[in-house]
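Input chain follows. Return C-alpha cells only.
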Amino acid sequence: MSLTKRSLDKDLEKIVHVEAAARQTASGVVSHGLAFLFLGLSALIAGTFSGITDSTALVIFAAILGGYMALNIGANDVANNVGPAVGSRALTMIGALIIAAIFESAGALIAGGDVVKTISKGIIDPSLVTDTDTFVWAMMAALISSAVWVNLATVIGAPVSTTHAVVGGVLGAGVAAVGFQLVNWGTMGAIAASWVISPLLGGAIAALFLAFIKINLIYQDDKIAAARRWVPLLVAVMAAAFACYLSIKGFKRVWKPDGLTVAMIGAAAFVFTWLVLRPLIRRQSEGMENRNQSLRILFRIPLICSAALLSFAHGSNDVANAIGPLAAILHAAESGDIAGKVAVPVWIMTIGAFGISLGLFLYGPKLIRMVGVRITKMNPMRAYCVALSSAITVILASWLGLPVSSTHIAVGAVFGVGFFREYYTSRSKRRREMVRKRRPENVDGEVVIGPEELQSRKLVRRAHFMTIVAAWLITVPATAILSAAIYLGLTLIR
C-alpha cells in the first residue's frame, strides 16, 4: 500500500512556493528601503555641503536625481564587468559584488577626475543655451529620463549603455528647450555608428581568442603541456591589454599619456607577466589531470583580476553619467552661467561612487546572472575571451578615434563567444571526430551529443538576444522622447 499523500504533497509544495515568494518580497522591500534611505542621505549631503542659499531646494532635488542615476548605473552597467567571471564560477556572486563595489568606488574617487563634461559627449553646444534656468531644467529632464530608462531596462533584464541613455536625455531636453540647431549631428552620427561597431568588434575579437584556445589547448591530446606553453602567453596578453586599457580609459580624467607611452606600458606589462607566470604555471600544473577542468583552474586568477580592473575603469568613467548633470546644475546655481566643463566637489563624487556600489549590491545580481549565465553558458576560458575582448576593443576604438560603448562591447563579446560555439560545435571536424570516437561524456564543459543534433543545437538564447538588441536600438530615441516630454512638463509647473 502506498503511503504517499498526493493532496498533502501538493499543499506542502504550495507552502514552499508561498514562503519563497514571501522571502523574495521581503528582500525587495529591504532593497527599496535602503535605496530610499540613500536618496534621503544624498539630499541631506547636498543641503549640508552645497553652500547654496538661493536655490537650495533645486540642488537637493538634483542630488536625489543624481543618486537615483548612480543606483541604476550600479544595478545595470556593472554586470558587464563581473558577469562572465560569475557565470564561469571563477567568482561567487558575493565575491563579485564585493570586488566590483570596491574597485568601482576606487575608480570613481581616484580617477573619476575633479572636472567633468556637463554635456555628455559634446552632443549639444552649451553656448546656444543663453538662459541658465533653461539649462538647469534641461539637465533635470536628462537625469530623470536616463535614470528611468536604465531602471526599466534593469527590470526587463536588458544590459544597456548608461552613456547612451544620458546622451538621449541631453539630446531630447536640448531639442525641446532650444531646437534642432543645438545638436551636433556629426557627433550623434558617430555615436549611432558605435551601436553597430561596438558589439560586432567585441564579438569578433572574443570569438578569435576562443578559436585559438580551442585549437591550441582544449583539443590537444596533452592539455597540460599545451597549458604550460600557452597560458603564460595568453595571460601576458591580457596583462598588456589591461595596462594599455587603464592608461587610455581608466585614468583618462587625471592623466593622458601619448601613444608611445601607452605602448611601452603594455610591452612592459607583457614581458613582466610572461616571465613571472612561466615557472608559476609549470608548478601549478604539476600533478593536474589531463582534462579541461584543469585548464579552467589556471584561468581563474586572471579572471578575478580582469573583473577588478574593468570595474575600476568603469567607475572612473561612468560615474560622470550620474554626477555630470548634477555638477552642471550646482555650477549654474552658484555662478549663474553655463559651462561645458565644471569642477566636481567631493560630496558630489561621493554620492556617485557610493550610489553605484549600493545599486550594484541591491539590484545588480539580476543583470550579472543575465550576462554571465542566461545568454550563453560560460567557463573560465570563455570568460577570459570576453574580458580580453573588452579591453582590446576599447584600445582599438581609441586608436581609430571611434566612440564605443563598454556595455555593447562586453555583451557583444558574450554573444560572439556563444555564436562561435554554435558554429564550431556543428562544423568542427576535430569535434565531430571526437564525437565518433568517444562515448557520451563531458567534453569542453558540455555533454557530447550525436552529429545530427549538433547541426541544430542553439547555444545562445534567442529571446535574450532579441530583447537586448531591441533595448540597444531604442535607448537613445526613447530617452530623447521621454526627456523632451519631461522638460516640457517641468516648464509648465516650475
